[in-house]
Amino acid sequence: MAGGRRGPGALAEPRRLMRSGLGLIVLGHGSLVLGAIVHGAVLRHVAGARRAVTPEYAAANVVSVCSGLLSIAVGIVAILVSHNLSRPALHWTLLSTSLLNCLLSTACSVGLALAIALTVHGRGTHLVRGCNSSALPADARTAIATNDCPFNTTRIYDTALALWFPSLLLAVAEAVLSGRCCLVALVFRGIGPCAHSYDKEQV
């Protein structure tokens, strides 16, 4: 196949599908690592006495970790499909998992964007809610004069944003690659206009 060809035929090339699968595996591991860092560096500090976590962290950590795990699964299935193009069961598995991961990664991207917007708008006040001090500042980057806070409030805000931005980029990339895998599965199963164009190219 020509390297510069565009269309369903190029999209369904086994080599490109394998690259998409490898990319999803790498992105999924990246999301897992960032999720673990968020939990260790931020999440365990901002949990209050009742262990209540703010909605921003629920969206940033739990959903991104689930998306990372599913991205790894989709990547593995995509690699298997690239080496077994005549297996209908693998086609349906790729279609279902990639569609689910595309939706989950999109929801994760929206959640992370909302978390970043709310945190910047509120100047990080929700991030220091777990602090027991009565002298909470209006800005999370402002130092608290008392020692009632069990964590350093001046670093929580910057750390959270520094971890959320790359997580957002990874989630967007996962959604794009999962969408491509979903289109490839539809092409292989003969569903949609792209599949008809692919059949014509094959003929």
UniProtKB/TrEMBL annotation:
Q: Which domain of life is it from?
A: Eukaryota
UniProt similarity note: Belongs to the TMEM54 family.
Q: Topology versus the membrane, per the UniProt entry?
A: Multi-pass membrane protein
Q: Where does the record say this protein resides?
A: Membrane
Question: What are the GO cellular component annotations?
Answer: membrane
PANTHER family in the record, alphabetically? KERATINOCYTE-ASSOCIATED PROTEIN 3
Q: InterPro entries per the record?
A: Beta-casein-like
What is the protein named?
KCP3 protein
Q: Which UniProt keywords apply?
A: Membrane, Transmembrane, Transmembrane helix
The membrane-spanning stretches of this chain are 21-42, 62-81, 93-118, 163-188
Q: Which organism is it from?
A: Smithornis capensis
A Pfam family found in this protein is BCLP
Q: What is the lineage of its organism?
A: Eukaryota, Metazoa, Chordata, Craniata, Vertebrata
